[in-house]
Amino acid sequence: MSKQHFQVLLEWDPGAVSWVTYVPALNNLSTFGDSREEALANTQEAILGYLEAAEKEGIPLPQAKEMVDVEVAVG
Questions:
Q1: What's the pTM?
Q2: Phi first, then psi: what are they for 61, rounded to 5°?
Q3: CA–CA separation, 68 and 71 (whole Å)
Q4: In this structure, what CATH number is given to the domain that contains residue 35?
Q5: CA atoms within a 13 Å half-sphere pointing along the CA-CB vector of 74
Q6: In which domain, by residue range, is 36 found?
Q7: Sign of the CA dihedral with 30 first, then 18, 45, and 66 last
Q8: Are 23 and 47 a contacting pair, CB within 8 Å?
Q9: What digits encode the pLDDT tens for the residues 6-64?
């Protein structure tokens, strides 16, 4: 399998006291960790599991989209 890159969104959840990640390209696949590093490592593992299951079940992966990271200020 060739190396693939996925955008990962990372946010601090004060209620859960943990870092939460989302992978928009994979149906907002989500996981968490006590540290940023742990959350990202868990995300990498979850992505690999998603890709393995998709391949095994014959589920097509979404086409890569060009994404731009932009912040918008309001108020």
A1: 0.80
A2: -85, 150
A3: 10
A4: 3.30.160.250
A5: 1
A6: 1-75
A7: positive
A8: yes
A9: 999 999 999 999 999 999 999 999 999 999 999 999 999 999 999 999 999 998 887 76
